[in-house]
Amino acid sequence: MVSRLLKNIWKISFINKEVRSSNSSCLIIGFPRSGTSIVSLLVSLCGYNFGSKEELKKPSDINPLGFYENKKIGFILNKLMNQAKIERSYYFGLNSFRAKGFLNRIKRVIYRNKLVAQLEGLSNSGKFGMKTTPQLAYFLSKILSNNKLIAVYRNPVSCCVSHSKILYNGDTFSQLLEYWKESNLDLIFHVISKGGILVKYEDLMDPNLSQEKLATISKYLEAEYTDHPMKYLKPDLNRNKLSNCADIDVNDLSESVVSVYKTLESIKI
Q: Whole-angstrom Cα distance, residue 23 to residue 121?
C-alpha cells in the first residue's frame, strides 16, 4: 500500500514536473575552478538573470567578480545530493544520483518541486541562467525546457592546482586529474547532444582572442554584441602561470587525460 502510494506521488509530482516558461534559460557547466563564474558574468551581461544581489553568493578573494551562484538553488541541490549520499557535485555516476531509502525518495519529490519553483521564479523576470557541474546538468536538463548550454574548460594542470589550493578537500593531484577527466567527458557529451558551445578559459583571458570569443557567445545567446564585457577579462584573472604549474606539461599526463583534453581542444569555439 505504502509502495503504491509512493509510486503515485512519484508519477504525479516528480517525473512530469518541469519549469513552465517561454523564456529561454542557459546552463553554464564546467569542472570547479574552470572559469564558470566569469562565463556566468558574461552571460548575465547578455541579459540572463541569475538572481538578485541578495540571492547570490557574495564575491570573495577567490572570485572577486562574483560566483553567480544562487544560494537558494544551491541549498536545494545540496539537499538533493545528500538524499543520494553524494559528497562531490562534480564526480558521481548517473545512477548514483537516485535518492537512497524510502524517506529520501519522499524528500526528493519535495525538493525537486522546490527547485522547479525557484527556477520558475527566476524565469518570471525573463531569460535566466544557472551555473552547475556537468554531472548535475543531466538532472537539471530534465526540468529545464528551451535551454541553451555553454560549457567551459581549463588546462587540467592549472585547473587541478587551483582546485587543490582553493577548495582543498584532501584529494591528491592524481585524484583531481581523474575527477577532471570524468567530469569533462560528461561535459563533452552535453555540448554535443545539446548543440551547446564550448569555451576555453585561457582563450577568454587572451587579449588576442577574447573579443572574438565574446562575439561568438553573444551571437549564440542572441544578444547584441558590445565590447563592454572586455573590461572584466583582466590578465591577472588567468592564474595558469602558477609556479607549480610551470614545469608540468599537459602531454606528460596520463594518456586518458590527454585524450580528453585534445577532444576539448578540437570542439571549442
A: 12
